[in-house]
Design goal:
mainly alpha, Arc Repressor Mutant, subunit A, two-stranded antiparallel sheet, 5 helices, about 60% helix
Length: about 80
């Protein structure tokens, strides 16, 4: 596997919330829905989505919205998710 994959994998496993998000998200969702699903603060859910988006593991489907943004796991994110199982 590529070096980028292993760097992203390492980034995900170093963070408990990042691991939880990757494991739980299959369908497009908002930070609010995620925060309710895994019982974390809304700000934490938003932060994790932003971190994962910067690494290319998630993408924002509604970037022009100020709130209620919808995020979707990318192909790179799915590869990490598969490796975590």
């Amino acid at each position: 596997m590529k070096r980028e994959f292993w760097e992203n994998y390492s980034f995900v496993i170093r963070g408990k919330l990042r691991r939880e998000v990757i494991k739980h998200i299959d369908n497009p969702t908002t930070p609010r829905e995620l925060s309710k699903e895994i019982n974390i603060h809304l700000s934490e859910a938003s932060r994790v989505f932003i971190e994962l988006s910067k690494k290319g593991l998630f993408q924002c489907l509604t970037p022009k919205l100020r709130s209620g943004r919808v995020y979707e796991i990318t192909k790179k994110g799915k590869e990490i998710k598969y490796k975590l199982k």
